[in-house]
Amino acid sequence: MSCTVPDPICSDVAVIGGGIIGLSIALEAQRAGHSITLIDPEPATGATFAAAGMLAPISELHYQEEQLLALTLASAARWPEFAARITAETGMDIGFRATPTLMLGADAADRIALEDLQQARLRLGLEATRISIREARTMEPLLAPHISSAHLLTLDHQVDPRLAAAAIQKQLLAVGAEREGRGADEVLIRARARELLHQDPTDTASPVIGVVLDDGREIRAPEVVVANGLGALELGGLPHHLVLPLRPVHGDILRLRVPEHLRPLTTATVRGVVRGLPVYVVPRNDHTVVIGATSREDTNAGASAGGVHQLLRDAQVLLPAVLELELCEVTARARPGTPDNAPLLGRVEAANGTVIPGLLIATGFFRHGVLLAPIAARIITELLAGVRDPAFDHFRPDRFSPARQHQESA
Amino acid sequence: MTQTLTDNDALLIDGVALGSRLIMGTGGAPSLEGLEAALVASGTELTTVAMRRYAVHGEGNTAGANLFDLLVQNRIRVLPNTAGCFTAREALMTAELGREALETDWVKLEVIADEHTLLPDAVELVEATESLVNRGFKVFAYTNDDPVLALRLEQLGAAVVMPLGAPIGTGLGILNPHNIELIVSRASVPIILDAGIGTASDAALAMELGCDGVLLASAVTRAQDPVRMATAFRHAVIGGRLAAQAGRIPMRTHALASSAMEGRADF
């Protein structure tokens, strides 16, 4: 451990934010031998609590986002082992399912749009197959007979983010206790981070040496990871020149229970485009399904009646039996959106071009937090070990900052 | 050459000269960065934003994070709209929200009849136009391609009348060119074709029919390459405008050689 003073709290790495990203980074860093302090007043209650947990880079392909595709593919490839190891360490099933995804069109225009996207997938060498509607309905007999097209994506899987977050948290505390003899309240600090602590308190570009909490307590750590999603906007002490262009993109998402006589509603993840709008139905091991998700950039953080209406209306076009389910939960959360839909991930350069020691950023994961958690954890852990892979420079957190943009245009 | 021909051809609305006759919408863009690039490529100087769908104020050190920041940075004027309103009452409240948040009297008035067609509700539209004009708004009235209704909206004080080419988001083009021509021929306020545009030739046709401008969103934002499509529309609107001013030849049943007999050597 880097510091032996009993007060303030000390560790090798402080991670601000206990969503799936912060948790995964803390887990991977702890596995690499670092002692960890995770700071979050309510871990895994933000976007992670809402997320459906689709590990679906291929069905989420969008035109002109090849850089992001490379990152999502790399992370999806890591998920099977990432999940297996968590389960082996904790004995907890985190709902990882290597089941396929069906991508369906509802009307003739949806069929054309999805066929265009299929051509783009084939050009990129992605595994996706057009199948007949009869074949799709043989796989999933409850699919509506009148859908217009079907594609089978065998590599797009899923995990249950709530179970994954709970398991990771359990593991962090267990290792903290066994390896370092630290109590749960030392490993997981249930408080809000107020600001970063700098070596030179007057200079936000000076090395980061810790975190000040809302209640005034100090956490000392030679490395601090900012992984608190939209919360980064309210965190003090970030370098003045660093622009983190995050915006809340609200999403409504539903959880429903499948009555016994309709089980399974579906075994594959069913996604579709219904009159131009995306919708998905993700089946869980516990006989529930997750139906999502809207994308709203309005000011309503609460669940939207219109959003719930839209999701049920469109989901029942693909799976009419959806209307027979028990509606258990309506959740709305904000995703941390960025201008290019890609995360802000890595170390930060000061205006003079030198890297600011002690500071790592991992936010802006937008729609892909769960999917990107293993690769984000890997990238940050390598940076902690002094290894920077230039393949990920595209996602550097200062790419929207004025100094950085100036350098690039020069 | 194109530049010179269109230089003195600004679209005048409420005393404001717009250099581009292409008005853009923002819905359906896959990313903020992609939207910005497409707006710049389109050359638009006026862009409409749904007040019900976008939060005006960002927070923190986030310059460029939000749609409105992006428009301000690119010096694009914002035209708030009432998309998603089904009654005159909702439209009024949404328009007031836009005026307060964005400090503009301009409003694009949309009063939609139903979710399935997204067609304007003529009765509510007339009522909302009258009320908004009385409250000092400059109303850009989104309407059906009905020449009677279009003229009525002008008489009620609409600053701009915006007939649809086809229902929103359908990309079906201009379904009733004759009606659009008729609306234009009777109007003394700017007529801007709004909704239904699918590809560049639709926009050129609108301009050839005599429209003063074209408003579109999905055709660009949902295209596979939005920047390329925005560029296509910039050229199409200019091309259609020039063609409308240039005086086209009449359509004939029988062929007429382009090299006529006059001036030839007489043997």
UniProtKB/TrEMBL annotation, chain A:
Reaction(s) catalysed by this chain's protein: glycine + O2 + H2O = glyoxylate + H2O2 + NH4(+)
* GO molecular function, a single term: glycine oxidase activity
Give the SUPFAM superfamilies listed for this entry: FAD-linked reductases, C-terminal domain (SSF54373), FAD/NAD(P)-binding domain (SSF51905)
Q: Carries keyword Hydrolase? A: no
- Give the UniProt keywords, A-Z: Oxidoreductase, Thiamine biosynthesis
Q: Where is the FAD dependent oxidoreductase domain?
A: 12-383
Keyword Heme applies: no
Annotated metabolic or biological route of this protein: Cofactor biosynthesis; thiamine diphosphate biosynthesis
Family matches, as Pfam families: DAO (PF01266)
The UniProt record lists the EC number as 1.4.3.19
Q: What PANTHER family does the database record attribute to this sequence?
A: GLYCINE OXIDASE, SARCOSINE DEHYDROGENASE-RELATED
Q: What is this protein called?
A: glycine oxidase
Task: Give the source species.
Answer: Paeniglutamicibacter terrestris
Which lineage do the record's taxonomy fields give for this organism? Bacteria, Bacillati, Actinomycetota, Actinomycetes, Micrococcales
Automatic annotation (TrEMBL), chain B:
- State which pathway it belongs to: Cofactor biosynthesis; thiamine diphosphate biosynthesis
Give one Pfam family, short name only.
Answer: ThiG
Which reaction(s) are listed as its catalytic activity?
[ThiS sulfur-carrier protein]-C-terminal-Gly-aminoethanethioate + 2-iminoacetate + 1-deoxy-D-xylulose 5-phosphate = [ThiS sulfur-carrier protein]-C-terminal Gly-Gly + 2-[(2R,5Z)-2-carboxy-4-methylthiazol-5(2H)-ylidene]ethyl phosphate + 2 H2O + H(+)
> Which residues carry out catalysis?
108
Q: Does the keyword RNA-binding apply?
A: no
Q: Where is the Thiazole synthase ThiG domain?
A: 13-259
EC number, as in UniProt: 2.8.1.10
What InterPro entries does the annotation carry? Aldolase_TIM (IPR013785), Thiazole_synthase_ThiG (IPR033983), ThiG (IPR008867)
Record protein name field: Thiazole synthase
Species per Swiss-Prot/TrEMBL record = Paeniglutamicibacter terrestris
Could you tell me the superkingdom of the organism this chain comes from?
Answer: Bacteria
In this chain, 1-deoxy-D-xylulose 5-phosphate is annotated as bound at 169, 195-196, 217-218
Protein family (similarity comment) = Belongs to the ThiG family.
Listed A to Z, the keywords are: Cytoplasm, Schiff base, Thiamine biosynthesis, Transferase
Protein role: Catalyzes the rearrangement of 1-deoxy-D-xylulose 5-phosphate (DXP) to produce the thiazole phosphate moiety of thiamine. Sulfur is provided by the thiocarboxylate moiety of the carrier protein ThiS. In vitro, sulfur can be provided by H(2)S.
Chief location of this protein? cytoplasm
Give the matching PANTHER family: THIAZOLE SYNTHASE
Subunit organization: Homotetramer. Forms heterodimers with either ThiH or ThiS.
Q: CDD domains, per this entry?
A: ThiG (cd04728)
Entry's localization field: Cytoplasm
